[in-house]
Amino acid sequence: MSAPRERSGDARRPTVLAYYFPSWHDDPRNAAWFGEGFTEWSLLRDARPRFAGHRQPRVPALGEWNEADPEVGARQIELATENGIDGFLIDYYWYDDGGYLEGALRDGLLRAPNVGDMTFALMWANHELVDIFPAASPDAPPPRLATGAIDRAAFERFGRHIIAEYFTHPSYLRVDGRPWLSVYEIGSLIAGLGGVAETVDALDWLRAEAVSSGLPGIHLDAVIWGFGVLPTAVVLDDPLSLVTRLAFDSATSYVWMHHVDVDAHDFPAGDADRLRREAFADYERTAAALPVPFHPNVTVGWDSSPRTAQQLPYERGSYPFLTTWDASPAQFEGGLVEAKSFADRHGGPHPIVTINAWNEWTEGSYLLPDTTHGMAYLDAVRRVFGR
Q1: pTM of the model
Q2: Are 285 and 329 a contacting pair, CB within 8 Å?
Q3: How many whole angstroms separate alpha carbon 358 and alpha carbon 375?
Q4: Domain boundaries, the chain
Q5: Is the pLDDT of residue 5 over 50?
Q6: C-alpha Rg value of the chain to the nearest Å
Q7: What is the DSSP letter of 214?
Q8: If we measure between CA atoms, which residue out of 164, 157, 23 comes closest to residue 92?
Q9: What topology is assigned to 15-385 in CATH?
Q10: Mean pLDDT of the chain
Q11: How far apart are CA 228 and CA 173, in angstroms?
């Protein structure tokens, strides 16, 4: 695996990658859907406690910032690298008619003067986008804004774009020379392309397109999960066999809730230690069944209530009316220690640990400092993994 900078210490130290959610800058689609100037800062700002002991609103200790600004990008890179984060896995959106929320990466992070200090890669968030900004009901399906299941023509436009704009960047994450691409929903990928055989052919085309651009291929990573969280999630009965059929090179997890039955947990507030135990038990089962390395995730917390209409009672329902898990920094650090051990046993020649997330403020999962815990979660990453 290529490294953007030298690291000292344990040679088996996993690469630590934090998922980055790019919804904190102006985007033309959001302006058309929700009005000029909309970002999810407004949802975060309006959040209120919905039950006894509910920790809302969450207030960023560094304030609200425009992540499409290179100076903000530089500040985030410095904060991440000084605290044990090697890179960002960018939640990347591409629909039939092109990209969405691309400004954070294109204009902010990649134009930062210190972009060479860390690595980045794309996690193609190819799920259906629905209007949960905010969600109006715990039961009624939210309106669709864009479909994640794109056809072959759109897939080829996507492939050519990411190869030209990102894969060839010197800071892009590579494994054995091949740029990394995670796919969030294998089910949506197959549905859009028309079947498993058609998906095999499309992925073969993508690999060949990368080779024709001077790259040695692509490292394809499958996000594996068994339980749907988003209201229109495409969950497969047998995702593990498809990892082999589609020739993925590794598998990862996005968030602990994908590995547990959320409805079996207490509502409205769940036990963070139980969540971790159940997720890692599923990780062990997944790693044992896969023919490729499986990379574990550590989830900071979960609270999607800012994405609900605040005047409504907070009742159990479909996303985002879900159980909240507000893990302490010490509980989070315990997850990091467990993930480090897991990566050493199952990570193959290039062990990785992912963290959800750098900045998922409106899902209650973020490493960035807030006014309650300050730098405590980042301090935990640094203690476990070093700088």
Answers
A1: 0.95
A2: no
A3: 12
A4: 15-385
A5: no
A6: 19
A7: T
A8: 23
A9: TIM Barrel (3.20.20)
A10: 93
A11: 28
